[in-house]
């Protein structure tokens, strides 16, 4: 049994879980061994103990002797999930206190990412502001990190909109929400931190209407870089991401102001601008288009000019022109903000608390857990089963072997590397933090350690769907650079150029996500994450995997994209008929592998058609100059209706293929490239030209086929009326 010394404190009106100033008591052999094995982390843990000790000594809030362990928690149902975590409602039994526990599977992280998580959690624990979600405490067992936070009964502002206001909120509510969030943001900025993931999904609301800025998952200490105030790492969620972050230029806390403006639009309309577009397009639109703005009249709401102006001030592409958070708070827009209770009364009065909402569905795509942890939290099914049975809430001890999903792999979700064995060791370390000893909102946060590990990256990827099964089956997919599974996993290097070129011109997975191979200009970018909307959004085209191509769009799946049954392929034709005797194929093969649009055959159809061709070639006395499988339909082998059917089928295929090509060409209708994208743009144009040529070639062939069909029809007529 794993035990962490820690205390909950009720002084000062709030429950505070903190780790003990005493050495952390670890009864798990794995954990203690791992700490001993890794002197670095031992050092970190020790230094944390020292910090905690000094905090504890300086704080009259902390009781000195109670011991807390996981038995003290009753885990209730899942209340949310993010890109890298499941969030559960729980009760801290000794004080019958409702809490939220975020469970993060450390197996998903590399060692340096775990260090980073450690710092982020420490930061969260140290943050003390009425509008910043604090962390009561955290601890690790096995490969899971448990972060205990206050329970926010209403959930996120995104939840609120999804439940009751899909088209957005009214202006007073927005002002009231945003003012609180901005106060939290100003506090973070003042203390040298960029949040980097400001969005409605990270604004949590309590039943009294108070709004807290949550999820420091990507927040970072400006001090970590050594150049205070400037960062270069590429993180954020695409729709909310500032252009300078996308460009991987130096950026500072003003990036949060951009995201804040996007969040304002999100609250006003129910979704972020460009939310319906795939990430790559979002990036291009954000970089190339005018900044998004607020439409003052929506289907459900009218907004003031002041509101629009406030948003526009945040949405300057030049970060220097955006106001800092404390100045923004003075904007007249916020004058209309009410007290939090107003929200409780007018906005959320009819919204059921999280616990009485239907249990949130996990995303469809999950990675099977291979964990052999001896205990774990329940998963949704277990929670649902318990709820259905009307029994008491399950505790982790009651559901051994059931793990929360490792991660949700689809667009917008975490894509991280499988940790090496060493990182797994470290994942088992025990570490915990106490809340800060500072009690006022101006107290400085403790600077993070100087090293700057890769950040928890937020999406810069294309509309790639990563098939989790590949990852699940690729336990060691990250161990070798050339490993097939690694390729299949399609790790994303979030370098913008690589995304651009890779997605369009590389045969290999268009974007890699490898630490070693994927350092764009020395910057390391790890994962793709997006907001919940994206969870449900299927990309139009999946990422081309090297080893296994994604299926074509559903409506085309039944269609062989290679017309094996044709011998009439034009020389440069794109959709090479593999059975074609005249097809050059070379160009075509190239074209086929361009980008994500791998025009592959349905193998079943192919083989069927092949055998049909083989069988018919010798027999057909009806071959025309441009003989095709249709023309080589063996007389006598097929009834006349069958011949007609075949002809119709061919014509249908022609139309569908034409449509596909038109779609493909349309897909490349991307925004105009800027100067620095000229090369890519030219390549894009070349690709489009090539596709257009292919389309023309195909149309020519279609014409030939039609003529051929006509000839056949005449032949059939002659047969019928000899
Ligand atoms: N303290 C809390 N109290 C109540 N609900 C919470 C709490 N923390 C999180 N949630 C719920 O769980 C959801 C997931 O939270 P989490 O912070 O893991 O992910 P996220 O911020 O939405 O996603 P991501 O990590 O991808 O940005 C939230 O949207 C919210 O609905």
UniProtKB/TrEMBL annotation:
UniProt keyword Lipid metabolism, yes or no: no
Record: residues binding ATP: 102
Biased composition (Polar residues): 563-575, 599-610
Amino acid composition bias (Low complexity), ranges on this chain: 420-445, 623-632
SUPFAM superfamilies: Protein kinase-like (PK-like)
GO molecular function terms listed in the Swiss-Prot or TrEMBL record: ATP binding; protein kinase activity; protein serine/threonine kinase activator activity
Sorted UniProt keywords: ATP-binding, Coiled coil, Nucleotide-binding
All copies of domain Protein kinase, residue ranges: 73-334
Region ranges (Disordered): 417-458, 534-637
Pfam families listed in its UniProt record: Pkinase (PF00069)
Keyword ATP-binding: yes
Matches recorded under SMART domains: S_TKc
Sequence ranges of Basic and acidic residues compositional bias: 579-596
Coiled-coil features, chain-numbered ranges: 681-715
Family listed: Belongs to the protein kinase superfamily. STE Ser/Thr protein kinase family. STE20 subfamily.
Stated name of the protein: Protein kinase domain-containing protein
């Amino acid at each position: 049994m794993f035990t962490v010394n820690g205390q909950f404190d009720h002084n000062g009106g709030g429950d505070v879980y903190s780790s003990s100033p005493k050495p952390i008591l670890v009864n798990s052999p794995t954990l203690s061994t791992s700490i001993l094995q890794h002197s670095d982390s031992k050092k970190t843990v020790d230094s944390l103990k020292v910090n905690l000790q000094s905090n504890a000594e300086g704080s009259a809030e902390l009781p000195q002797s109670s011991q807390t362990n996981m038995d003290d928690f009753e885990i209730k149902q899942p209340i949310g999930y993010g890109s890298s975590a499941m969030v559960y409602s729980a009760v801290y039994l000794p004080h019958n206190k409702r809490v939220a526990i975020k469970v993060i599977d450390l197996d998903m992280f590399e060692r340096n990412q775990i260090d980073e998580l450690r710092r982020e959690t420490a930061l969260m624990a140290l943050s003390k502001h009425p509008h910043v979600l604090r962390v009561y405490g955290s601890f690790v067992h096995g490969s899971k990190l448990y972060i205990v936070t206050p329970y926010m009964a209403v959930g996120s502002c995104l939840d609120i909109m999804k439940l009751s206001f899909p088209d957005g909120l009214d202006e007073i509510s927005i002002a009231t929400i945003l003012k609180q969030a901005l106060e939290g943001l100003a506090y973070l900025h003042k203390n040298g931190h960029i949040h980097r993931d400001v969005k409605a999904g990270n604004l949590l609301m309590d039943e009294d209407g108070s709004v807290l800025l949550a999820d420091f998952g990507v927040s970072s200490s400006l001090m970590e870089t050594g150049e205070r105030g400037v960062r270069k790492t590429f993180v954020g969620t695409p729709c909310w991401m500032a252009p300078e972050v996308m460009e991987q230029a130096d950026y500072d806390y003003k990036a949060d102001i951009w995201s804040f403006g996007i969040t304002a639009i999100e609250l006003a309309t129910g979704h972020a601008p460009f939310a319906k577009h795939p990430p790559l397009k979002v990036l291009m639109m954000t970089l190339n288009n005018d900044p998004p703005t607020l439409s003052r009249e929506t289907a459900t709401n009218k907004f003031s000019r002041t509101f629009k102006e406030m948003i526009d001030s945040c949405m300057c592409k030049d970060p220097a022109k955006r106001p800092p958070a404390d100045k923004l708070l003075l904007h007249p827009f916020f004058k209309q903000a009410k007290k939090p209770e107003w929200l409780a009364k007018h906005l959320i009065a009819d919204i059921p608390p999280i616990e009485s909402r239907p249990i949130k569905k996990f995303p469809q795509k999950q990675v099977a857990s291979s964990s052999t942890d001896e205990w774990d939290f329940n998963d949704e099914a277990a929670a649902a089963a318990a709820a259905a049975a009307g029994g008491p809430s399950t505790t982790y001890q009651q559901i051994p072997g059931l793990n929360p999903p490792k991660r949700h792999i689809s667009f917008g979700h975490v894509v991280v590397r499988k940790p090496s064995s060493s990182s797994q060791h470290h994942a088992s370390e025990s570490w915990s933090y106490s809340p800060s000893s500072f009690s006022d909102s101006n107290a400085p946060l403790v600077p993070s350690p100087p090293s700057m590990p890769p950040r928890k990256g937020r999406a810069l990827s294309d509309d790639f769907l990563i098939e989790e099964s590949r990852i699940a089956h690729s336990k060691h997919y990250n161990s070798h650079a050339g490993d097939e599974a690694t390729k299949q996993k399609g790790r994303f290097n979030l370098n913008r150029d690589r995304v651009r070129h890779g997605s369009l011109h590389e045969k290999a997975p268009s974007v890699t996500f490898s630490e070693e191979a994927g350092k764009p200009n020395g910057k390391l970018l790890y994962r793709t994450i997006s907001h919940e909307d994206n969870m449900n959004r299927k990309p139009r085209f999946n990422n081309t995997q090297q080893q296994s191509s994604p299926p074509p769009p559903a409506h085309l799946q039944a269609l062989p994209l290679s017309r094996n049954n044709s011998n009439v392929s034009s020389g440069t034709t794109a959709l090479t008929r593999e059975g074609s005797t005249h097809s050059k194929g070379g160009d075509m093969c190239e074209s086929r592998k361009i980008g994500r649009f791998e025009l592959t055959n349905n193998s079943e159809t192919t083989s069927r058609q092949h055998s049909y061709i083989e069988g018919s070639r010798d027999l057909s006395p009806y071959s025309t100059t441009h003989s095709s499988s249709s023309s080589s339909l063996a007389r006598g082998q097929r009834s006349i209706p069958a011949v007609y059917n075949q002809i119709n089928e061919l014509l249908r295929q022609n139309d569908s293929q034409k449509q596909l090509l038109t779609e493909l060409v349309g897909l490349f209708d991307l925004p105009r490239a800027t100067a620095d994208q000229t090369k890519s743009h030219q390549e894009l144009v070349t690709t489009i030209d090539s596709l257009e040529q292919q389309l023309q070639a195909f149309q020519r062939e279609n014409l030939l086929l039609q003529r051929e069909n006509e000839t056949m029809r005449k032949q059939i007529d002659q047969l019928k009326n000899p």
